[in-house]
Amino acid sequence: MKITSAKNHELVAGHMLEQIQSGAWQPGQRLPSVVELAEQYGVGRSTIREATSALKATGWLDVRHGGGTFVKAVLPSDPRHGADMLFESAGSLAELLEVRRALEAGAVRLAALRRGEPELARLREAFAQMRQALELGDTAAGERADTAFHMAIAGAAGNPLLAGMMESLADRFEATIRQTRELRFYREPGTAERLLEEHAGILDAIERGDASLAERRLTAHLDGVLAALQEAIAGGKSNLETMNKNNKIN
After folding, report:
1. Domain covering 5-71, topology
2. pLDDT in tens, 177-190
3. CB contact at 8 A, 88 and 164
4. Taking the CB of the first residue and of the last residue of the chain, which one, N or C, has fewer CB atoms within 10 A?
């Protein structure tokens, strides 16, 4: 089945969800590889990764590090379209993101001024892991590395109280990173590469010791994430079914 539309990832996600809901793909079943799915749908691998990211975020798929992608053994009980649930959670995510923005804007300024070689090494290692995860198409590893990068900024600020506040919120911040990555992957093709570039810019500013530039780049990064959330809130529920009617799967 070939997909022909500017919204390839949405159409692929919609058809994959139909495969699960119809029983064509059973709970616990391993899906074909990214390469195989890309060939079946006639799209690029990044499109398949964006589609599976959306279905993972909404509870339909389980992506295992080094082990492939599987239909969840226990499927979501909510009968609504899976993507709708992701967008409806955007409001609470936006609140958490605002807290992250407020804390990290100050942390990144301090990090640029106070970082030493050990702190830079930690940041570079987290960034290298993000890049490797992108190359391998490992979304779970990318999420972990993204979280590690932002926590490394807090550590580089040289303020134990600030670092402690970030650590105390680590689990919730990790959840926002995971879910907002999934949301951006779903709504914006090419997001993974763009996110890597944004983190590269933040790292560059910290390495330079340019506090103002570091803050601008970090807030621009988080503002982009927030904009995607606000768009989801304004847009309401997913329009996948409508798009499938207007863009037939052949």
Report:
1. Arc Repressor Mutant, subunit A (1.10.10)
2. 777 776 666 555 56
3. no
4. C
Q: In the CATH hierarchy, which fold is given to the domain comprising 80-247?
A: Four Helix Bundle (Hemerythrin (Met), subunit A) (1.20.120)
DSSP assignment string, 86-103: HHHTHHHHHHHHHHHHHH
Confidence of residue 121 (pLDDT cuts 50, 70, 90): very high
Q: Are 232 and 239 in contact (CB under 8 A)?
A: no
Cβ-proximal residues to 96 (8 Å cutoff; 6+ apart), any chain: 172, 173, 175, 176
Over residues 206-215, the pLDDT tens digits come to 999 999 999 9
- The label of the residue with tokens 């009980």 reads 77
- Most distant CA pair in the chain, distance: 58
Assigned token pair, 80: 């609504």
pTM of this structure:
0.61
